[in-house]
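hey so u asked for the seq, here:
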Amino acid sequence: MSGHEHSRSGIKDRALTLLALETSCDESAVAILRHGTDAGVEILVSLVSSQADLHRAYGGVVPEVASRNHVLVLRPLVEQALEETGLRPLDIDAFVATRGPGLASSLLVGHSMAKALAAASGKPFLSINHMEGHLLSPFLNDPQSPIENPNPKIPSHLSLIASGGHTMLVHVRAMGDYQLIGRTIDDAAGEAFDKVARLLGLSYPGGPEIENHARGGNPRAYQFPRSMPRELDFSFSGLKTAVRYTLPKVENLKDELPHLCASFQQAVIDVLVDKSLRAAHETGCNLITLSGGVSCNSALRSGLATACGENGFEFLACPPCFSTDNAAMIAFAGLMNLQAGRHGNFSEDIDPNLPLCAK
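ran it, structure tokens below
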């Protein structure tokens, strides 16, 4: 029986164990998820091998370096995940991998390996959109918390996804039914953090560096612009330029660094919060979710949560441990797709520019 045929034999109607690989950029990640009617969704293992130290010297990700490192570490990570869970490849019910968007050479490593594992085991293979993984991650339980929802459902809501490569607002009408209603027209929020960090002499990745320095600063010390382009789109390039033009006027950068970081960070947060609230009003959603690498920023999480409470919206953020690129969210997206009736397809190939949905 082929993997494709096996995926049509009622796999979505029983307990499942999924193994997922994520290699869209510079993180090599493996996760194994189990879902049963009593135990709910459980992440048995989630491993991430970061390449941040390798790329720090370049101030950003070098595709060739990233793909080469994926080749070196991915197989040992899969073996480690299986060893830690006591499972064999034949115990896995379906294999999942990120199809795109991302770096082509990186995507190819994880996608090919998962497909090979599925074929060798005679099990289904699913390709998952990386952004759908982020979009669904707020509904993935924090492994440190008790399981409260054994059968997670994806309700209608407004999703804010903010990462290094993407900033988007998505109207989620149901699982698999997404409408892109806002996106960045230049720099993504995470990209802006990285570029401003470089201007300030901080190391890569810039988001955590700026957040750390901002904790001791005054967010109103510098009046940086809040760019509000047409409709619900985002623009952060002007904010980055404003920081660049401000720096020559700063007499003591060491003393002013916390205030510069806090003021820049607050400008980003104000835009993200304002647009999210407007989008929720326009779509009639009463739930706003937050995900993506930038959602690790505690000031953003707090600011959006407070704004939602003040405006009568529910708020749900991705668990911090699943905010940056990881395979647990890809496994969860795979599970949700299987439960929605989507079948595996070995003929799908990577797509570095894979869209989440049309606008």
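The two ends are 39 Å apart (CA to CA). The CA atoms of residues 114 and 320 lie 26 Å apart.
lmk if thats what u needed
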